[in-house]
UniProtKB/TrEMBL annotation:
Enzyme superclass (EC): oxidoreductase
Domain Dyp-type peroxidase C-terminal, first and last residues per copy: 149-312
Species of provenance: Ottowia thiooxydans
Keyword Oxidoreductase (UniProt): yes
Bias (Polar residues): 368-379
Domain named Dyp-type peroxidase N-terminal: residues: 20-146
Protein name: Iron-dependent peroxidase
Keywords from the UniProt entry: Iron, Metal-binding, Oxidoreductase, Peroxidase
Similarity section: Belongs to the DyP-type peroxidase family.
InterPro entries per record: Dimeric_a/b-barrel, Dyp_perox_C, Dyp_perox_N, Dyp_peroxidase
Region (Disordered): 347-379
Length: 379
């Protein structure tokens, strides 16, 4: 049995730094893996080295809270590791609403670097790129900054209703519903560009009705006042028992004022990407369909990519290839020692997470997700 699986059965493996605070500075880097077996080998070996690189840079200036999360895209997982694969890993599903579109864009690797100062992000990104060399090609790179009291680019405080502490872990970390991948997470990223001229033409009261909270004090509107197409109204989703479902957002504004570019880098971790996808469906298609998120009239999604975030232990193990592979790479089920997984599930403590991945169709008052999602061009 692999080390990662043993850790998973005995105690929960340590997640990567998914639940860190957004930081004051953040780098969001999306990369593709270059063609060829040599590039694949270099990327695998970086997985074994990533935590060490973070320690090397972080140790130079203590207290700067440097953190790193490495995500792996669906196509990249297949190429680097084959079966078995994380149960909910798939390419980002493009959404086409009546008026607004969420595109699916390529990405093999995500680097999410956060710190109290940008020099730390810069240094770690530089060291990582030196390690990866020409095994990767850049797809997108965004440098986010904390804007006064954690305001988004549109001037409202962002992140208020994020889960905290144990709730944040519960919302983001895979439990025993996916044996072998415990301690992992999923992350969806989208780069949004805002039409700030149009946005700034709205009065503060109109902007507040778009978001569903007050601008200055960040207080949520009462339910009977909050418009049904406000951002907040459409992003509160529940399971069939009426329990609110959470994701953990670590959004950051970014801008290039001389080019007139103003944006929000949306990034959300979840133990089940179906929760984030449901929110996106509400925003782009609408709940009910047609009642889309008014914030999208001022914000265009220009990227959209989904990644799996292995636990810290699994990331390191992946340096040597897929630890669950038995030589038969054809089917995921045959590649995992079935008896080991059965005993892992049986011995793991019962928790809310053991109920399995979200059954989207069973959600109260929600559109049927699968009928609304357009398969991505990658699928
Ligand atoms: C244009 C990009 C976006 C901007 C500027 C933005 C901004 C905001 C702001 C200002 C809030 C209120 C404060 C808070 O609770 O954080 C908020 C809440 C929230 N947003 Fe967004 N957001 C964006 C995109 C998204 C997307 C794409 C999703 C989901 C897929 C999302 C999910 C949420 C959730 C779940 C909440 C909290 C709802 C609640 O429980 O009250 N946001 N967002």
């Amino acid at each position: 049995m692999s080390d990662a699986l043993m850790i998973a059965t005995d105690s929960s493996p340590q997640p990567q730094a998914v639940a860190e605070s957004p930081g004051v500075a953040a780098y969001f880097i999306v990369l593709n893996i270059a063609p060829g077996a040599q590039a694949e080998e270099a990327v695998r070996s970086f997985f074994g080295n990533a935590a060490g690189l973070r320690r090397s840079v972080g140790q130079r200036l203590l207290g700067r809270e440097l953190s790193l999360v490495v995500g792996i895209g669906s196509d990249a997982w297949d190429r680097l590791f084959g079966a078995p694969r994380p149960a909910a890993l798939h390419p980002f599903k493009e959404l086409n609403g009546e008026k607004h579109r969420a595109p699916s864009t390529p990405g093999d690797l995500l680097l999410h670097i956060r710190a109290r100062t940008e020099d730390m992000c810069f240094e770690l990104a530089t060291q990582i790129m030196l390690a990866l060399g020409n095994s990767v090609e850049p797809v997108d790179e965004v440098h986010g900054f904390r804007y006064f009291d954690a305001r988004s680019m549109v001037g409202f405080v962002d992140g208020t209703e994020n889960p905290e502490g144990a709730e944040a872990i519960d919302a983001t970390v895979i439990g025993n519903e996916d044996p072998g991948f415990e301690g992992g997470s999923y992350v969806i990223v989208q780069k949004y560009l805002h039409d700030m001229q149009a946005w700034n033409k709205l009065s503060t009261e109109e902007q507040e009705r778009v978001i569903g909270r007050s601008k200055h004090d960040d207080i949520e509107m009462a339910d009977d006042v909050k418009p049904a197409n406000s951002h907040i109204a459409l992003n509160v989703v529940e399971d069939e028992d009426g329990n609110e479902l959470a994701i953990l957002r670590s959004n950051m504004p970014f801008a290039s004022p001389s080019r007139g570019e103003f944006g929000t880098y949306f990034i959300a971790y979840a133990s089940d990407p179906g929760v984030t996808e449901l929110m996106l469906t509400n925003m782009f298609i609408g709940r009910p369909p047609g009642n889309y998120d008014r914030l999208l009239d001022f914000s265009s999604a220009v990227t959209g990519t989904l990644f799996f975030v292995p636990s810290q232990a699994l990331l390191e193990e992946l340096a040597a290839g897929n630890p669950f592979q038995t030589g038969d790479t054809e089917t995921a089920s045959s590649a995992v020692d079935a008896s080991a997984l059965a005993s892992a599930s049986a011995s793991a403590p019962a928790s809310a997470k053991s109920s399995g991945t979200l059954s989207i169709g069973s959600l109260k008052g929600q559109p049927q997700l699968d009928s609304l999602l357009t398969p991505s061009r990658n699928t």
